[in-house]
Amino acid sequence: MGRAAGFTLIEVLVAVLVLAVGLIGGTAMQLHAMRARHESALLSTAVQAATTMADRIRANAGQLGDVYLQLDYDAAAEPVPGAPPGQCLADACDASQLARLDVYELKRQVRAGLPAGRARVCRDAAMWQDGRLRWPCSGGPAAPVVVKIGWRGKNPDGTPQADADGGFVPGVAIAVAGVAP
């Protein structure tokens, strides 16, 4: 009696197992790629907002201490930023009004583009600590002006990213060149 041609049950089960492992691996790679794309988009948004603010500060440097250095916005604490009294649309505005409008625009960008974002402009000579950006500013009149922007990100396992103190770290810090101390 001859042997029947075909697959045995064990061969079919092994093939299904190999296929399942391949599908799980492909799905994991797809999720990782989506997470990386999202983080990249957030970083790009933060860099654009920070460089735009740095350009605005350079263009209106006379308002540095009065308006720009006062900015410490946290979208979680102030979900809807208050609009400045004059928005320079129909009427001409002075340097102070323009600076307040710049700050308002940055707050709107951070709120709209970053999950529970934060923006800060300060003088800081020590932006890095233990290889990570940090929110506190060293201050001092000779320290460079820095625009810091961040968001509350998540680790791959879904837990919030946090620094050693339990807070989130800035994603971007850009020194404003060309502004006199």
UniProtKB/TrEMBL annotation:
Keywords (A to Z) from UniProt: Membrane, Transmembrane, Transmembrane helix
Sequence ranges assigned to domain Type IV pilin Tt1218-like in this UniProt record: 28-104
Membrane spanning residue stretches: 6-28
Pfam families: N_methyl, Tt1218-like
Domain of life (superkingdom): Bacteria
UniProt cross-references to InterPro entries, sorted A to Z: N_methyl_site, Pilus_4_PilV, Tt1218-like_dom
Matching NCBIfam families: IV_pilin_GFxxxE, type_IV_pilV
Protein name as catalogued: Type IV pilus modification protein PilV
Gene name per UniProt: pilV
